[in-house]
TrEMBL record:
Protein name as catalogued: DUF5684 domain-containing protein
Membrane-traversing stretches: 20-45, 52-70, 76-96, 103-122
One matching Pfam family: DUF5684
Keywords of this entry: Membrane, Transmembrane, Transmembrane helix
Keyword Membrane: yes
Top-rank lineage group of the source organism: Bacteria
Length: 134
């Protein structure tokens, strides 16, 4: 006779298999995301006159991205304040876009909404950073 006691261990085995598979795929996704972040931000920071190696530590990279936007690194703490962080991120994107000679549309869409793509475009194009444009 088939009872519920036979099904419960089978379900437990299935949950274990799913969670380990999900953990593995999310770990691989995280590593790929980190590699893409470093590949996009390192040359971006170098073009902006900041140390490129700071892209290896994403929190530190945020300080230097804010500095590339012409603001004090202390302003980076605004990323910790809810709602304010959204407004601040748009301001940083606009200032970075202007510093590299791009308009507001490029800045908002590619440096704020899809920042990784925007950083790749600026990093591997002939754009130059000019503090006078900020």
């Amino acid at each position: 006779m088939f009872t519920l006691s036979h099904v419960v261990p089978l379900l437990a085995d299935m949950q274990t298999a799913d969670s380990s598979g999900a953990t593995t795929s999310s770990t691989i996704g995280g590593i790929i995301g980190y590699i893409l972040f470093v590949a996009a931000v390192w040359p971006f920071l170098k073009k902006a006159g900041q140390p490129g190696w700071t892209a290896l530590i994403p929190v530190v990279a945020a300080f230097f991205i804010v500095r590339a936007a012409g603001l004090s690194a202390w302003w980076t703490l605004l990323y910790l304040v809810p709602i304010v962080n959204i407004v601040f991120a748009i301001i940083v994107a606009l200032r970075l876009g202007r510093a590299f000679g791009h308009g507001a549309l490029f800045s908002v869409i590619l440096l704020w909404l899809f920042s990784l793509i925007g950083y790749f475009i600026i990093s591997y194009s002939r754009d130059t950073h000019d503090h006078a444009r900020i």
